[in-house]
Amino acid sequence: MPDSPVLFLADTAPDGATTFTRADPGAAHVRVDDLGVTRGDGIFESVAVVAGTPQSLRHHLDRFTRSAALLDLPIPDTAAWARAVTDAAAAHPPAPELLAKLVLTRGVEGGDAPTGWVHVFPAPDHGPQRTAGIDVLVLERAYPSDVVTRAPWLLQGAKTLSYALNTASLRYARSHGAHDVVFVSSDGDVLEGPNSTVLARFADRWVTPPPELGILDGTTAGRALAWAAGRGDRTEVARLSADDLRVADAVWLLSSGRLSAPVRSLDGVPRPTDAALQAELLHHLLTVHD
Ligand code: PLP
């Protein structure tokens, strides 16, 4: 059965202890007055499960915990969530690439418990973008690079369920002939994609922008930088401008689902990609389980 999603529902006790129960993924489980549905008030993680092994699970759960803290949600019982991800992945029919989606919402309006679940399902086929590369637009995110300290209520840096603007920016890109987006701050810093982290290579120096800019601390970028360091290259978490991306030797968008996608044009201007390095990086992301 190639398409047999697995669902585990969370039950969170007042002291935060969480137990998970397997449930029918085809049945309805979330109430219409759940604040995750009506307000996007909640958090999530998407974890790649490659050859049955969840990737960077500790890093994902640390980020899930930080997101929960930023939204004043109950702090997740990470041991229980880790077990649920591992058990749900093991319960899924084997597949080269799956995704595990972890969701935690503020729960039903007026209630006192969060709603949570782990859903494991086949990953979409990203083969063409991994191989042929992607066309990317540089778009304004319209907040300054110090948004985290200046306006913490904007929740930048939390992986919230409020992704309407992320998907809107992707629709905008597609309606303008591109595949994806790199956001820049109002003062010119490269931020991230709507569902990816930016990685640029300048000779033997690999650079990704810092989470202090109000962007997610990407797990895939962490794995890619560890791989680059292992090749003897220099790695940096540092600020970049869109002009830096234009002159970089190669640029990628990285994320748990697509893993690495080479950027082959920026704002319609073709830029070089490096097929050999992409193959090496993708091979690492698909075969080194951490
Ligand atoms: N930035 C945003 C806004 C994302 O939504 C994602 C992933 O979905 C990423 C970055 C990449 O993070 P990761 O590599 O941990 O999947």
UniProtKB/TrEMBL annotation:
A UniProt-annotated Pfam family: Aminotran_4
Keyword annotations of the record: Aminotransferase, Transferase
InterPro entries, per database record: Aminotrans_IV, Aminotransferase-like, BCAT-like_C, BCAT-like_N, Class-IV_PLP-Dep_Aminotrnsfr
Keyword Transferase: yes
Transferase is among the record's keywords: yes
GO MF, one example: transaminase activity
Coiled-coil stretches noted in the UniProt entry, renumbered to this chain: none
Family: Belongs to the class-IV pyridoxal-phosphate-dependent aminotransferase family.
Name of the protein in its database record: Aminotransferase class IV
Organism: Kineococcus halophytocola
